[in-house]
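Appendix B, example 12.
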Amino acid sequence: MTYLDAASAAPLHPVAREAVLAALEDGWADPARLYAEGRRARMLLDRARASVAAAIGVRPDEVSFTTSGTQAVQLGMLGALGGRRRVGHHLVVSAVEHSSVLHTADWHAANGGEVSTVPVDRAGQVTVDDYAGALRADTALVCLQTANHEVGTTQPVAAVAERCRDAGVPLLVDAAQTLGRMQLDVRDLGADIVVASARKWGGPPGAGVLVLRSGTRWQSPLPSDEREAGRIPGPVNLPAVLGAAASLEARISEMDAEAKRLSAFVERIRTEVPTLVPDVEVVGHPTERLPNLVTFSCLYVDGEALLTELDRAGFSVSSGSSCTASTLTPSHVLVAMGVLSHGNVRISLHRSTTRDDIDRFLGVLPRVVADLRRITGTDSL
């Protein structure tokens, strides 16, 4: 099998595996205890926190570890909304945010809040003026992703952050798809809250990151807990955290070379797929995008059937579309962009992806699509 779904979860980085195994030996104790094993665990936790903080340009005390990227999103959003409830209950998000952001926005609206959704263009990108136009006197929080998880388009986060700062409104940035893949310095970004997930950059599952910049008003939406500065309840998954920190440090050291290599593969797919397969639309911004992700949609093909056949052919890929005969529910990202959602395929590459993987995928795809169109009688349309 050839795994091409790093946007969902990248394969575990070798240094992450080593760090997790070492932590199972040395970092199993409670970091809050004063005896030797606890002090050892605390030292490892502090070292991991400092490593992540240095990687993204923040202070260690601004970094907290969560159990996942989703938990980081929920706590980050709800805590910021709670901390600014005297200002108002208005929340601003883009139409293409990750489902964890949109689900939290729905929860906020169901509990008396108000949500404004900023549209995107056909490339999946927002405009700074649209975001600025959505700000109001009662806006409590603004959310914007650094790059889209389905089509790879990057967003003008720093410019939006400047408008938010002028209006006195905090900005939460979902950096899950960018951290470890592209240069990210929170100070340059101008974000007040940053969230990310370790498994996206090759860390282990069970670790997420929540960054709360100093001075950001935030109140935990959960009962108070003495751990992680009162931000995250429950004990830290120390082996996962150590694996996350080690793999992030390794990914950043190899990031430039990997971005150049994978971007060349992505450009090849973007260029060749429309020539190899009729009636295909490559979606997402052609240049302002992640270096490792490409998405295209095939007309007259059921998305679920296409993924199933590619899996049988030895390729693990994802889809931004759940538009099938049974659900009839297309991707919210593709719908917001106004692009073709049928037969959607998302290819997201990682450090183990090779040129041979791309050669074989491009060799198999035309046959798979042609076979599916022939089965449904759409090959002659």
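Residues 238-276 form the longest helix (39 residues). DSSP finds eleven helices and twelve strands in the chain.
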